[in-house]
């Protein structure tokens, strides 16, 4: 029996009393992935990206482990909710225009001390000030650096379009503007190199493309190491007591952690290990989060139909954004239908061994987005469900 077949047997036994659709997290795999992230971070703390988890119980579990500290959130409403729930170090990773949220933040000492907000433009400070109302708490600010690689005099750009701040002088100028403005305090710098951390460099059947990605990432790392260090020096000249410099992601933990300028690493997807993280030479993890759909039809030889499953991930549309049938091994989509809103035909010889009511296990393309489809996660240890915990959706929150 292969390791994957053994996992299928465990998951089927653990959930035999439960009807699909359902979602699980294999805690043995989750904990092993967490330990591997800590090992790769080489002693630097890991700030957990909540968008890749979207479950308070699992955020609490991983933050209880040595080597993890703080949360990187994705909306201001989520940040405030987490702070009210007892998380005392929440970095909002994206600028916000949530005026009501800023009014709450500026009026509550507990929230203001727990949450840092992202800024890359003075206009964002203006919005916060206009939203304050009577709130006079100091707003903790993190500045974001653009990490994109620019080639041919800027005519070619590789990397996400995020912050407009690129040079040490630009970031330092904004740090001065924040520091001179009453009611704000610069506490950190964030620089997420998504073109390194979030792009696999070992694509099955595409050796030339894989080599090109590795060459690009090597060049991007060299450029960013120098520029990030220069930015940190420039900002520390303005804010000597800077609390943190955050960088990296699941795919770049060890290389980002090796930079002296970086004080902490961001990671989250590496806990669940969705399918987009199968294509890395720098690490390998164990799939921990899966969902099951029930077989509801057997249209013919080599075909079964499961209920639903059309859960595409965000990003540029393509087959790499689709969940994949994972267990039993050997199933594939009908190319004329793909994963459907209500029904999904699956082809392959394993279909002939599946009965009505059996479960087919899938992996989502990305991590936390799976939790937007399910109210709860069944936590599995060995071949037993040991707990059922709510996702953000199960707690009545769909932040984005």
In short:
This protein has helices spanning 3-14, 27-41, 56-63, 76-84, 99-107, 109-114, 122-131, 168-180, 194-197, 207-238, 253-257, 269-272; strands at 22-26, 46-49, 68-73, 90-92, 115-119, 139-144, 149-151, 156-158, 184-191, 244-247, 264-267, 289-300, 303-307, 324-327, 332-333, 343-347, 359-363, 376-381, 384-390.
Key descriptive features of the protein:
single chain; 400 residues; alpha/beta; 12 helices; 19 strands; 24% strand
Overview of the structural elements:
The protein is of the alpha/beta class and 400 residues long. The chain is built from twelve helices and 19 strands. It has helices at residues 3-14, 27-41, 56-63, 76-84, 99-107, 109-114, 122-131, 168-180, 194-197, 207-238, 253-257, 269-272; strands at 22-26, 46-49, 68-73, 90-92, 115-119, 139-144, 149-151, 156-158, 184-191, 244-247, 264-267, 289-300, 303-307, 324-327, 332-333, 343-347, 359-363, 376-381, 384-390. Strands 1, 12, 13, 14, 15, 16, 17, 18 and 19 form a nine-stranded mixed β-sheet that branches. The chain has an eight-stranded parallel barrel with strand order 2-3-4-5-6-9-10-11, surrounded by five helices. A two-stranded antiparallel sheet has the order 7-8. β18 (376-381) and β19 form a beta hairpin. α8 crosses α10 (207-238). The longest helix is centred in the middle third of the chain and has 32 residues, at 207-238. The radius of gyration is 22 Å and the shape is globular. The mean pLDDT is 93.
């Amino acid at each position: 029996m292969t390791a994957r077949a053994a996992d299928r047997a465990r998951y089927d036994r653990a959930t035999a009393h439960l009807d699909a659709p359902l979602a699980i997290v294999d805690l043995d795999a989750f904990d092993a992935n967490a330990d591997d992230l800590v090992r790769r971070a080489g002693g630097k703390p890991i700030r957990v990206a909540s968008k890749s988890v979207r479950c308070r119980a699992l955020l609490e579990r991983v933050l209880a482990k040595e080597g993890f500290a703080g949360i990187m959130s994705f909306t201001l409403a989520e940040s405030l909710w987490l702070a009210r729930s007892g998380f005392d170090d929440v970095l909002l990773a994206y600028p916000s225009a949530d005026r009501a949220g800023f009014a709450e933040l500026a009026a509550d000492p507990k929230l203001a001390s727990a949450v840092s907000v992202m800024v890359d433009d003075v206009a964002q400070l203006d919005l916060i000030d206009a939203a304050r109302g009577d709130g006079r708490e100091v707003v903790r600010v993190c500045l974001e650096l653009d990490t994109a690689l620019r080639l041919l005099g800027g005519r070619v750009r590789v990397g996400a379009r995020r912050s407009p701040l690129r040079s040490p002088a630009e970031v330092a100028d904004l740090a001065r503007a924040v520091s001179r403005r009453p009611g704000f305090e610069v506490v950190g710098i964030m620089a997420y190199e998504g073109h390194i951390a979030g792009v696999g460099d070992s694509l099955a059947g595409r050796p030339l493309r894989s080599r090109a990605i590795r060459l690009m990432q090597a060049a991007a790392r060299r450029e960013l190491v120098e520029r990030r260090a220069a930015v940190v020096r420039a900002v520390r000249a303005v804010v000597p007591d800077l609390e943190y410099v955050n960088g990296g992601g699941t795919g770049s933990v060890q290389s980002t952690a090796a930079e002296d300028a970086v004080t902490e690493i961001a990671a989250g997807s590496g806990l669940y290990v969705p399918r987009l993280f199968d294509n890395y030479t720098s690490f390998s993890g164990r799939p921990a989060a899966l969902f099951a759909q029930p077989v509801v039809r057997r249209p013919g030889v080599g075909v079964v139909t499961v209920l639903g499953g059309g859960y595409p991930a965000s990003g540029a549309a393509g087959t790499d954004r689709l969940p994949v049938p994972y267990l039993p091994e050997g199933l594939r989509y009908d190319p004329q239908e793909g994963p459907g809103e209500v029904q999904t035909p699956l082809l392959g010889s394993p279909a002939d061994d599946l009965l009505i009511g059996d479960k087919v296990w899938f992996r989502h393309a990305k991590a936390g987005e799976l939790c937007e489809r399910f109210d709860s996660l069944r936590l599995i240890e060995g071949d037993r469900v040991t707990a059922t915990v709510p996702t953000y959706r199960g707690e009545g929150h769909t932040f984005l």
